[in-house]
Amino acid sequence: MEKNEVRDDRLFELEDEFTELIKNKKFKEAKTLIEDLNEVDIAELIDKLDPTTGTVIFRMLGKDVAADVFANFDTEQQQEIMKASTAQEIKEIMDELYFDDLVDMLEEMPSNVVNSILKYSLPEERTLINQFLKYPEYSAGSIMTIEYVSLKKEMTVKESFAKIKREGIDKETIYTLYVTDDYRRLIGILSLRELIVAPESAKIIDLMKSDVVYAGTHDDQEYVAGLFKRYGFEAIPVVDNEKRIVGIITYDDIMDIMEEEATEDFQVMAAITPTEEPYLDSSVIFLAKHRILWLMILMISSTITQRIIQGYETYLYSVAGLSTFIPMLMDTGGNSGSQSSTLVIRGLATGDIKPHDWFKVVWKEFRVSVLVGIALSIVSYFKIIYVDRMPESIAMTVSCTLIIAVMTAKVVGGLLPIAAHKLKLDPAIMASPLITTIADATTLVAYFFFAQQIIG
Amino acid sequence: MEKNEVRDDRLFELEDEFTELIKNKKFKEAKTLIEDLNEVDIAELIDKLDPTTGTVIFRMLGKDVAADVFANFDTEQQQEIMKASTAQEIKEIMDELYFDDLVDMLEEMPSNVVNSILKYSLPEERTLINQFLKYPEYSAGSIMTIEYVSLKKEMTVKESFAKIKREGIDKETIYTLYVTDDYRRLIGILSLRELIVAPESAKIIDLMKSDVVYAGTHDDQEYVAGLFKRYGFEAIPVVDNEKRIVGIITYDDIMDIMEEEATEDFQVMAAITPTEEPYLDSSVIFLAKHRILWLMILMISSTITQRIIQGYETYLYSVAGLSTFIPMLMDTGGNSGSQSSTLVIRGLATGDIKPHDWFKVVWKEFRVSVLVGIALSIVSYFKIIYVDRMPESIAMTVSCTLIIAVMTAKVVGGLLPIAAHKLKLDPAIMASPLITTIADATTLVAYFFFAQQIIG
Fold it and tell me: Do residues B377 and B400 make contact, with C-beta atoms less than 8 angstroms apart?
């Protein structure tokens, strides 16, 4: 990682220098120091200051970068700036922000702040903002933006360029162009690259592709992310029920969403109520709340294993050494099951596994579990006899249980996520903790059964 | 998901129609049916045929789409086509493929096929291919491509456009332009958008941004993905030790890598030796091999819990009901620990948590675990007394153990992934299965300790 450290180091050095200048109230020098940076880096440096000083520096930034930096601030800093700004300044920021960033900002703010900000917007803009705020969370409508370039099919390349040159500076992307009919219905797409290499007199209708991949306003963002991954597009249009284009979603927003979706799966799979709040910013109470529900459910469902052991308690006491293998058997069953459920949950998430593949999964898991179960039981058999120096009857009991435990855990672990998917539940809940709880019970029942058969 | 189903349905219908035509050997009609589709969809439809028929259809496709479709085939279909093609055809495919797709294809093929393909390339191209094949796996060099547009700082906007128009069709992206000096060193970047809205006579040096974010050829792909996520770029340049630009990486390749990296983490966290092979395409032996190693290690390390129980076996027998809570305590400890380790592993992967935050993590986990531990132990206490109708001394023992089990598991679960990161190991190995094994031992020791103190 030689090269990267170089960049990181430079940012670190810059940060020290910047903090030093701020400390000495040399705000103008501080601003000059950072204004050539990327807006993400500028926002990070300002975010680290106290909000009031941050606002001072922000208001010194040039108009051309201010909105981009603003969009990268955290909510606290954004609110501080809104409070400190004049009506004219708020209007300027709102005009410069991309529509999706504006809506994102408003979603995070208390409603009184939202109302006071909306005062500065034009009536038609206000209507549009309110409409966007109403799209369901995690829908395509809630993440799209309205700054795209649309062309008409009868336009020439030259006319199109003139339009792009005129409007392009305010658009989120100009690299994908949308061709619409007189009713604003999407009839084709075209990349700027195709436009650039085409002769000036060519018509849009002859260059555009009419097989357009699009999303509906109410489609889930995960589905939209799937389209991006499948096709590698730079932007995807969002249409309403009449196929009229209402917005676009760009790849950079989808990258964030892909990351959020993966994080959500990780959390659900670890029996955590999911949240988008970053770990270090979360309060202790908040973190505890998100963990306790599932721990409680799983703890109470352990009553099953408790009752099974209770039923065999006297028998367990009568065979020395029998109880010592319970943790190992339970862990191995649980781990085997979570291997399978994890692969299937992930496969469903990436689209590698489709729900109608359920039988293939079960059949595969069955065969894998036979192989894995036998291998583990052979090793365990010899370990118990030659390392632990216990009777062969116990070794045989443990080995037989291992095979059944691994097989049940793997088949159930492979099947449950698909079943959850079919029941429109999140497959990720069928992960390690839940599978472990199920595997525990089967493992114990099998163990006591084999023990009574083999040891007597 | 109304709108999406529409598209999926159309593809399904098309597939039926296409298969029907193929069955009746109406290859020409089949080709006409699909050639207007997106190249990803065309490749998928052809991939589903047997390789020979696939090759027939492929060779009927127009030159303009053929290479794009080819890049989307699976390895088997690519090899089949290479075998069936004439020298001239192979040369054409190679010329049309983007360099990164070409290298990807060659990496997957047996070396004799690679050699016979390389025969058709020019000597300088061959040298370059060999150089690319030598970059370490998962490095920026191994995923970059060479088709970018470079400009000189003294060029005008008009001259730059002429160059883009001339070269653009063969470039992976023309939307980010790279400014280099006479030694091919990267001195600035510029977006096509900035070029389009600028006056024709403006000079590149006045438009370009010299604060360029770049990666080194040997940087890890995960680091590069981090740059994309942080800055939202469409492409990132890759430079060598002398800061000469040698390639670029585009957002669509990074999306695949983000997904692969997340999948790898999921696998490692479920105690699976990671692989990029899709689940349904993997053989049973392959799947078993990737699961058995960790199961074996974890099974053998359970010897510790086995010995702990062995040491207390007589004591365990002497208190009725004591053994029945072992599964619940172990599972709760394991689940608590994997909640913490999952959040920290994911935080490290997304960059929300930095290794130097280790103390913050420990302190947070400590406080969360106190809250969660107390809540669980109170519920468990009353459940044991009023539902299970067991003695208060057992209830108290279980409750005290729960607090210690949750606290140890959470603090250790939070700390171990960071420790692994510092030791340059993958933090993801410190996940559920390993934490469970560690939590099991502490939980049992605490359980027997409290039992002897409280019950006697």
Answer: yes
- pLDDT at res. B114: 79
pLDDT at A403 over 70: yes
A273 touches B: beta carbon within 8 Å: no
Residue A383, token pair as written in the block: 């370990």
Contacting A residues, span 312-351, partner chain B, CB-CB under 8 Å? 313, 316-317, 320-321, 323-328, 330-332, 334-336, 338-339, 341-347, 350
**What would the two tokens of residue B131 be?**
């150089």
How many C-alpha atoms does A334 have within 13 Å on its Cβ side? 27
Question: Does A69 contact B at CB distance below 8 Å?
Answer: no
**Which two tokens mark A422?**
């079919």
Could you give the 3-state DSSP secondary structure of residue B179?
Answer: strand
Residue A47 and residue A76 in contact, taking contact as beta carbons nearer than 8 Å:
no
CB half-sphere exposure, B360, CA atoms < 13 A: 13
Cβ-defined contact of A335 to B371 (cutoff 8 Å): no
Distance CA A78, CA A86 (A): 14
Read off the tokens for A338.
């979570």
Gap between the Cα atoms of A84 and A53, Å rounded: 11
Stated as kind and residue range, the H or E segment containing A262 is helix A251-269
Interface check for A9 against chain B (CB to CB < 8 A): the answer is no
Cβ of residue A230 closer than 8 Å to a chain B Cβ:
yes
Which residues between 175 and 214 in chain A have a beta carbon less than 8 angstroms from any beta carbon of chain B?
Answer: 175, 192-193, 196-197, 209-211, 213-214
Q: Each residue of A433-443: pLDDT tens digit?
A: 888 888 899 99
Residue type, B92: E
CA distance linking residue B134 with residue A137, whole number of Å: 46
* A324: closest CA of chain B, how far (Å): 5
Q: Got the DSSP string for B25-59? A: T-HHHHHHHHTTS-HHHHHHHHHTS-HHHHHHHHH
For residue A420, what are its two tokens?
């959850």
> Beta strands of B98-182 (E only): which ranges?
149-151, 176-180
B122 in contact with A, Cβ within 8 Å: no
Say how many C-beta atoms besides its own lie within 10 A of residue B137's C-beta: 8
Handedness of CA B227, B232, B235, B237 (dihedral sign): negative
- Please state the separation of Cα A288 from the chain's center in Å: 21
Judge residue A19's burial from the number of C-beta atoms within 10 Å of its C-beta, 0-12 exposed, 13-18 middle, 19 or more buried.
Answer: middle
d(CA A12, CA B65): 47
0.80 exceeded by pTM: yes
Is residue A353 a contact partner of residue A317, using CB atoms and an 8 Å limit? no
ipTM score: 0.82
Nearest residue of B to residue A286 by CA position?
Answer: B368
* Sign of CA pseudo-dihedral B278, B262, A425, A254: negative
> Which residue is listed with tokens 């060099």?
B141
With CA atoms as reference, report the closest residue to B350 among A153, A245, A75, A266.
A266
| Nearest partner of A380 among B364, B54, B297, B406, judged by Cα | B297
Encode burial over A214-238: b for 16+ CB neighbours within 10 A, e otherwise: bbbbbbbbebbbbbbbebbbbbbbb
Q: How many CB pairs under 8 A join A and B?
A: 377
Report whether pLDDT(A111) > 80.
Answer: no
* Contact criterion met (CB below 8 Å) for B93 and B68: no
Task: Report the relative pairing of strands B149-151 and B176-180 from DSSP bridges.
Answer: parallel
Measured torsion, CA atoms of residues A228, A232, A238, A243, in degrees rounded to the nearest 10: -120
Of A452, A169, A276, nearest in space to B191 by CA: A169
Q: Which residue has the tokens 């030159």?
A: B63
* Mean pLDDT, range A22-43, rounded to an integer: 85
The residue type of B370 is V
Flag whether residue B46 sits within 8 Å of chain A, measured between CB atoms. no
